[in-house]
Task: inverse folding
């Protein structure tokens, strides 16, 4: 989007909300939320402490990963958000650049909490020694800071950790601690959206981390291990931040769900379900357009569930209709071809629901040879064991079609 167009869209958004901002006198006052559809202020954002970091945040933060409009970052700031989350890998660094430029232009760096994420040195690179790993972490961080136009980030995560081993990897721990000591990051943490309970527990036990970022949403309502791990993290003073609170598919429910529930109810119910867990400080909800911004600020003042939201959350057909893969890995053992089902389902979500083909392609490329798209025989064994009724073979077929259009599947898996 051109800067001129982006500014125009932002102005339109702000104009629609001016009743609220005028009431607060100054645009950008923390804790003020945007007006409702009738331009009535809907309250003050709930704020919570981020563990023992000394930081307090509104419960809604900007997951900037799928955004490409600096005006939207500015609008999130003006709506009262103070935490902006990005990653080295998002749009090959361009997302960090966009967030950095937007906040630098506003001149609000000191008011904001910026987080970014590095992959473990061995995830994306062929490093073999501890010294090489640490060196790579240092140089990656330097490049990241340059793109973000800042001398430091507030939180630096290791990205997409799926098992406890990297959490206590010596090179990673030492690298992160060195970056913290050098003042390149104020706090360090781990991010996870697979095997979350185990990774969160390991993060707590490692004893060096300040923050943990975990996927958490209503499709996991029957999972007792993750809330217990989150509770433990909070008790030990770690800040807990949630992602994927809208369950990826909450914006794209099936037609039956849409007949029964409004989009507003679907989104607010999903957000409230996650944030009613008081051990979580804030949610980095993905905001890639002004409608997302309006939704996300709209329910940050009051987490009481309405009767419609309660009905939505109790409705089993919603979950079955969504077919959301919660990355539980419960199907892995059932696949005779050893297909990496969770990562393929995540690729599908990025490609079809977020329309983020960069992320989709990266996820697909991270799947080891022989565990990707090519091998699935549509036998259905995984569907039989999946608690969320994810139609894995159908989604794999859709992915094959998408990638067939771009090039031979063998290029991508
Ligand atoms: S497909 Fe189902 S069983 Fe497999 S990881 Fe996803 S939610 Fe879990
Ligand atoms: S349908 Fe495909 S992914 Fe699922 S168990 Fe069979 S071969 Fe594996």
Result:
């Amino acid at each position: 989007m051109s800067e001129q167009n982006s500014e125009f869209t932002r102005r339109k958004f702000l104009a629609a909300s001016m009743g609220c901002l005028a009431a607060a006198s100054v645009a950008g006052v923390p804790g003020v939320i945007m007006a409702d559809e009738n331009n009535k202020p809907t309250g003050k954002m709930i704020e919570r402490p981020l563990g023992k970091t000394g930081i307090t945040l509104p419960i809604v933060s900007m997951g900037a990963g799928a955004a490409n409009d600096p005006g939207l970052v500015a609008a999130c700031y003006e709506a009262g958000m103070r935490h902006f989350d990005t990653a080295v890998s998002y749009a090959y660094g361009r997302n960090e650049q966009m967030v950095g430029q937007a906040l630098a232009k506003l001149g609000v760096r000191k008011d904001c909490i910026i987080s970014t994420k590095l992959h473990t040195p061995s995830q994306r690179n062929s490093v073999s020694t501890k010294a090489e790993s640490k060196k790579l972490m240092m140089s990656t961080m330097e490049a990241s800071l340059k793109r973000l136009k800042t001398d430091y980030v507030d939180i630096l995560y290791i990205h997409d950790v799926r098992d406890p081993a990297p959490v206590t990897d010596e090179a990673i721990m030492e690298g992160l601690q060195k970056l913290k000591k050098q003042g390149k990051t104020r706090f360090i943490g781990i991010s996870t959206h697979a095997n979350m309970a185990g990774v969160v527990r390991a993060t707590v036990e490692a004893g060096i981390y300040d923050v943990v970022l975990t996927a958490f949403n209503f499709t996991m309502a029957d999972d007792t291990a993750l809330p217990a791990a989150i509770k433990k993290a909070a008790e030990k003073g770690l800040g807990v931040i949630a992602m994927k609170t809208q369950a990826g598919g909450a914006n794209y429910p099936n037609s039956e769900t849409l007949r029964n529930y409004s989009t507003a109810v679907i989104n607010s119910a999903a957000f409230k379900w996650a944030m009613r867990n008081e051990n979580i400080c804030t949610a980095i909800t993905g905001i890639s357009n002004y409608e997302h911004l309006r939704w996300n600020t709209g329910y940050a003042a009051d987490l009481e569930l309405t009767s419609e939201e309660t009905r939505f959350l109790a409705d089993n057909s919603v979950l079955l209709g969504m077919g959301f893969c919660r990355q539980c890995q419960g199907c892995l053992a059932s696949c005779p071809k050893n297909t990496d089902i969770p990562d393929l389902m995540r690729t599908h979500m990025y490609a079809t629901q977020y329309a983020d083909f960069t992320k989709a392609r990266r996820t697909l490329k991270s799947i080891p040879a022989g565990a990707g798209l090519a091998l699935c025989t549509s036998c259905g064994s995984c569907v039989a064991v999946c608690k969320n009724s994810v139609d894995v073979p159908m989604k794999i077929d859709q992915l094959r079609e998408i990638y067939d259009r771009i090039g031979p599947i063998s290029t991508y898996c």
